[in-house]
Amino acid sequence: MDQFAVKVFVRLRPSVLDPAGEATKSASIKLGAEGIKSLRIGKMIEVKIEGNGENEVREKINLLCDRLFANTVIEDYEYSLEKL
Amino acid sequence: MDNFTVGVVVFPGSNCDRDVSWALEGCLDIRTKYLWHESSDLSDVDAIVLPGGFSYGDYLRCGAIARFSPLINALDEFVKSGKRVLGICNGFQILTESGFLPGALTANKNLNFICDDVELDIISSKGGWFNNGGQKQTIKLPIAHGEGRYHCDSDTLKKLVDNELIALRYKNNPNGSSFDIAGITNEKGNVLGLMPHPERACDETIGGTDGLFTLKSLILK
């Protein structure tokens, strides 16, 4: 069995309003940061997972992302995978 | 009312389950039974309410974890049999997360947790959930949510409109919901999800009775 470290990034789809991102953008500008054009907040999920090779692990992660980690009505996801 | 029994689902973190049961039993004389989320035996209830609250602490997304409970797994057969399911607030979020209703509920536009009475237009009579004898086309119900902004893509919205699945719309949209949507039904009409709390509007002494019709309609066949 191989072990992999997976980092999943879940983001609101570009068409979905992100009020928390807007509030943080507003606070960033109040802090004095200049030049911020856009600020959106997502989630990062770290998973350590075993499987027989990368393909099998990708299948498992795809299932987790599609059915649990992200709500694909409003969110997109992508992930990186590193063999340990 | 005969032996008709409404199952009120209790998740860890539900906090409107007692209110729903109180309103059904005390105001409408409808028998209720609490259903623990680990149960998958729905054989002795005739309708189900998914109450408001913060199931599983709203971890990950509101309603996302509740979707995997044994009870929600058993709900598919229950819904297919035509029995009625009412999802209130967190219950609505669970119904969208688990695919019984389209769309999703996300953070309110202004990020506030909104606790207020709102006026709502009754849009569709599908399922008879708001049948009040034709006296009222606008009702007033309390809302209490931080993540009640209904969102769906334009194709889904068109389908909701074309098939008369939009049950309620806010008169003055408080949270930024698409198309002012406060509640929707499935195509058959036996599943209703809404952000407002009908169980908190069942007695004049606490501010109104516009929620009675919706709870009473649980016993419709």
From TrEMBL, chain A:
Organism annotation: Prochlorococcus marinus str. SB
Keywords, ordered alphabetically: ATP-binding, Cytoplasm, Ligase, Nucleotide-binding, Purine biosynthesis
Top EC class for this record: ligase
Pathway: Purine metabolism; IMP biosynthesis via de novo pathway; 5-amino-1-(5-phospho-D-ribosyl)imidazole from N(2)-formyl-N(1)-(5-phospho-D-ribosyl)glycinamide: step 1/2
Annotated protein name in UniProt: Phosphoribosylformylglycinamidine synthase subunit PurS
Quaternary assembly: Part of the FGAM synthase complex composed of 1 PurL, 1 PurQ and 2 PurS subunits.
Database matches in InterPro entries: PurS, PurS-like_sf
Function (record text): Part of the phosphoribosylformylglycinamidine synthase complex involved in the purines biosynthetic pathway. Catalyzes the ATP-dependent conversion of formylglycinamide ribonucleotide (FGAR) and glutamine to yield formylglycinamidine ribonucleotide (FGAM) and glutamate. The FGAM synthase complex is composed of three subunits. PurQ produces an ammonia molecule by converting glutamine to glutamate. PurL transfers the ammonia molecule to FGAR to form FGAM in an ATP-dependent manner.
Cellular component, GO, one term: cytoplasm
GO molecular function: ATP binding; phosphoribosylformylglycinamidine synthase activity
